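P.,

For your records, the input lines for the assembly:
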Amino acid sequence: MTELFFRYYRDVTKYNVLFTLFITVMSRSAFAIPVSFGVAGNIFSFFIYTHFQSIEYYFYLNGGLSKNRIILNTFLINFLLSFILFIVIWKINWN
Amino acid sequence: MENKLELKSIEFFYSRKNILKNVNLVCMTGDIIGIFGRNGSGKSTLLRLIFGTLKPKSGQIFLNDKPIGEKLVLNKYIAYHHEDIFLPQDITVRNLIPLYFPKGSDQNNIFYDSRISKIERQKVSTLSPGEQKYLQFLLLVNLNHDFVLLDEPFTMMEPLLKNAIKEIIIKNKFRKGFIITDHYYSDVLEIATRKMMIRDKSIWEISTDDELADSGYLPNGIR
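Structure tokens returned:
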């Protein structure tokens, strides 16, 4: 079940990483990384996945994972990672 | 254990259009129910209602006399083979199988299939549509679900794979119930233990193959 979820997590998060890289390069600010990865990139990645790979949600549903659950779990993991990253960047800048 | 899947007075609308009306159906372990009907008659809709990805406007679906909901689907009682391929593409067959079957012993039925062992090192995206669909079918049938809903399992399949699918369904009918719909009607007729027809929003059981023509599904004179 965990492996199945992380397959989805990997697939959807790759779009988030690309989006975050683009936003970071454009903004030239380290704070863009957590803000994008935790919020905007997160939303963008779900949009892209749903647009191009929505049929794959049947794969996860047959495996016992609902669409809402895997989206929510992915969002929470990325949000938490972003929060930690935000604190780290803030600490570095503050010192 | 014998399981029972029951639909009672199901009604479904799509954008105010009535698709299904007063649909009643019982599927038991051991049943292979073939559902026939013209394009747009509501066959796929019916399977999605049972799987829970669509909600009926009225009526209820029961599994062993308990109302069915997302929980029962997610607790692995019902598997649904979509008419399209839903497998992740950027993964090898060898790495895909453990996602559904973490235990090595559970993987044997799939890895030991002669058609799968030939392609296990390939990425799913490099397989032909027929091979992908066969892999998708094999994964679902080997899950521990009590009922399997098969939407167009024979479409895009070469004759040898069609035969393999039929053999696997018959082999598994003693522990599962199957509901199948496909326009390759002769393949469905060959294995179905019960046949049903959907027309004019209603579903009813047919007893002879000739009724497919009589009900307007097949042109007269074709069987």
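Two observations worth noting. Chain A has one domain: 2-94. DSSP finds four helices and no strands in chain A.

Regards
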